């Protein structure tokens, strides 16, 4: 059983909650894309992504974050991640996308 992904929109940030795994990531993308559209009008150059409440991840979560980064870049925005789960960092490192997504985190 998986905890379905949820997002909370704050002034200039989005909080992720739940499991971001193969079984849930497509639904997560549909929800997240709607939130990104809401932030499009925001004049800030950065969007803060808080991953503190993320429970489970697998490599499909990285694909979601890369798609999110691409979408943000198309809108002239950069992403800043906080509270990155250790497993997510390890997967990103092994996949070769850690610096692309998280810089020197």
Amino- and carboxy-terminal Cα gap = 30 Å
Computed over alpha carbons, the radius of gyration is: 13 Å
Class derived from helix and strand content: alpha/beta
Oligomer: single chain
- Mean pLDDT, to the nearest integer, reads 89
Any idea of the CATH topology? Transcription Regulator spoIIAA
What overall geometry do the principal axes of the alpha carbons give?
A: globular
The CATH class, by name, is: Alpha Beta
By CATH, the superfamily comes out as STAS domain
Number of folding domains? Answer: 1
Q: What's the total helix number?
A: 4
Major sheet details: 4 strands, mixed
Query: Share of helix among residues?
Result: 40-55%
Estimate what percentage of residues fall within beta strands: 25-35%
Low-confidence stretches: none
Describe the structure.
The protein has helices at residues 25-40, 59-74, 86-95, 98-102, and strands at residues 6-10, 13-20, 46-57, 78-82. The protein has 105 residues and is α/β, with parallel strands linked by helices. It has a single domain, classed as 2-Layer Sandwich (Transcription Regulator spoIIAA). The chain has a 4-stranded mixed beta sheet, with helices on one face.
């Amino acid at each position: 059983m998986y905890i379905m992904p949820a997002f909370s929109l704050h002034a200039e940030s989005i909080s992720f909650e739940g499991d971001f795994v193969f079984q849930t990531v497509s639904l997560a993308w549909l929800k997240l894309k709607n939130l990104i559209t809401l932030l499009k009008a925001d004049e800030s150059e950065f969007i803060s992504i808080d991953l503190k409440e993320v429970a489970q991840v697998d490599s499909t979560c990285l694909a979601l974050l890369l798609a999110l980064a691409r979408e943000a870049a198309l809108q002239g925005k950069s992403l800043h991640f906080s509270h990155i789960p250790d497993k997510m960092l390890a997967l990103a490192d092994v996949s070769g996308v850690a610096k692309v997504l998280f810089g020197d985190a």
